[in-house]
Amino acid sequence: MVRKRSWRMTFFVFLLIIVALGVVVPAFAPLPSLSSDSFSRFHYKHKSEKKTDAQKFEIADDMFWKDRMPFQIIGGDLHYFRVLPEYWEDRLLRAKALGLNTIQTYVPWNLHEPIPRKLVFDGNADLETFLKLCKKLDFLVMLRVGPYICGEWDLGGFPAWLLAIEPALRLRSSDPTFLSLVERWWGDLLPKVAPLLYNNGGPIVMVQIENEYGSYGDDSSYLHHLAMLARRHLGDEVILYTTDGGTRATLEKGTISGDSVYSAVDFSTGEDPWPIFKLQKEFNLPRNSPPLCSEFYTGWLTHWGEKNAKVDAEFTASALRKILSKKGSAVLYMAHGGTNFGFYNGANTGSNESDYKPDLTSYDYDAPIKESGDVDNAKFKALRKVISEFTTAPLPSVPSNNMKAGYGDIKLHNTAFLLDILNFIDPTVVVQSERPVSMEILGQMFGFLLYVSEYAAKGNGSVLSVPKVHDRAQVFILCPSEDNGERPKYVGLIERWSNRAIDLPYLKCVAKISLYILVENMGRVNYGPYMYDRKGILSSVRLDGSILYNWKMLSIPFHNFNEAQRFNPIIQAANSAFIEIFDRKYPKDNLENISKEPAFFSGHFIIDKINNVKDTFISLKGWGKGVAFVNDFNIGRYWPSFGPQCNLYVPAPVLRQGENLVVILELESPHPELVISSVDHPDFSCGSRSSSLHQL
Predict the structure, then answer these.
(1) Between β-strands 204-208 and 140-144, what pairing exists: parallel, antiparallel or unpaired?
(2) What pLDDT does residue 424 have?
(3) Of the residues 210, 295, 371, 440, which is catalytic?
(4) Closest by alpha carbon to 401, among 15, 91, 108?
(5) Could you say which of 58, 212, 353, 520 is catalytic?
(6) Who contacts 410 (Cβ-Cβ below 8 Å, separation ≥6)?
(7) pLDDT in the model for residue 594
(8) How far is Cα 156 from Cα 151, in angstroms, rounded to an integer?
(9) Tell me, what's the pLDDT at 54?
(10) Does the pLDDT of residue 593 top 70, yes or no?
């Protein structure tokens, strides 16, 4: 249902937008000192909660042993940070019905320490509650503590503030400053999980060090140092392990010899597993190499602009049977993929850092438990059938799919233009610099950064070039001396993957022309040699071949998935002026130019009864590109014009009985009728049909 907007509703939308923008002043606050002298190494000794001689998990005779009985790991990755806490138990019960006995999950550093020394272990980041829930449901846990995780997650789980440190850190290395930060982080994390080790009465039987390091580097000192740190905090009884691709080259660089660290392998689904398991033995101690594929791929990731990845169900099940039938162990990656809510999606690169491929908001992964938890599908049934052949106890009954609802069309209204925030910002919060600086240097980790400069008009126009922009820049110009209500004029787009110069048309202007460059951070690279992925304008800006100086920079961070919503007192002071903007309709004339200017749109829908609050999807077909919020929750990026994802998943806990508010920031081309829809199904049919999928 859609109702006519009231002034009260308009004012509420204003509050939502300014909360979405986040706090401007702290975004430019200087980072604390991050020199290596600031950190100290310290030891931690944990006390066992319920230590018992009967509870023990170990490796012997090329087998896993649980409480002195042979044990075959049939596990699956399920990431607590990609599922709302209200649904953790639901998804774990579905994994139990699939036949899994073990849950594997990463721990993303950036989720838990989004800014230096601000630790977050509650809400969506409540790792301890998730682990205790796993124990309650009789799962073992394989915990992947990083510090690097990959996982198609922003910067591979590293907090982006690491990129603000000068001199630049060498990530994933024995760089002393980097290691001191890892020591500090693990000094916070590992004491929290130590009481939950299996030998202490908890569910954690194995703890992974790094992730697929053999595909990245060969700094053995770094790996040995991580193993030493883990032992210091966790003791000698827990099994430490590494995961690397099943080739000699990757195993030689990624294993940690001499420190009693077990080496697991991963490989492409469909490869003959047993020659790889034979190779695995060479990198483990004698009689200490139970065959384990710690990432058995049930599907694959998808980038924007690609065809949605699919892997045949029977093919996947047959490949799993080849492992389990000879008493091998496997962990399904993924058992349940979930969602990259907010701005946490990662990205990959190809042959160079400009060959940039950001990941979708959906992390469905073509897993047996779908993004919304659905299990009534061919892959779940095929894998469950295979797993049932290798379990002695009957599997739990399969739960039905969660109910979903479509709440119909939602009419949106233009509530504000993004660039209008310049009219209401205190000049003291704008950073000025001779040259553009990166997002991280400004203390901003996610969202957008607006760069503003000016230049003198030329009779035949000018040519603008920005050799290095990460990741996508929209360019606008405006004659500030003209007081005729003109909007900034969109003149072009500069993309990291197809960078080209832009012709700036001639504007008759008495004063200098204002130049606006709005840069979107589309997700940091999480894998490969180009992970040091700062965002923003990373080069000089040239106008007609000459460097353009004197820049103002305004942070537009928005709130992210795990961040508390905060009110911005600076924009609050502009309340009355924004109220007028809220009621402004899209101009009927000159709509073609206006439609390229980023703008906020808002609308609402009604859920009449509490028992009608169900999962839904917001369909953005017909819109261009942007970010969507439902009831102030950042449900993620949309880009249906590029595809393949058309709809964004909205879990029921985000919704409420009564009025539900949707706000979107549309960057370029709103739907002609300003309509979105709430539907009851996912849709990956938008945009390009070409696929350049490849396994990394």
Answers:
(1) parallel
(2) 77
(3) 295
(4) 91
(5) 212
(6) 2, 603, 604, 605, 662, 675, 676, 677, 678
(7) 55
(8) 6
(9) 63
(10) no
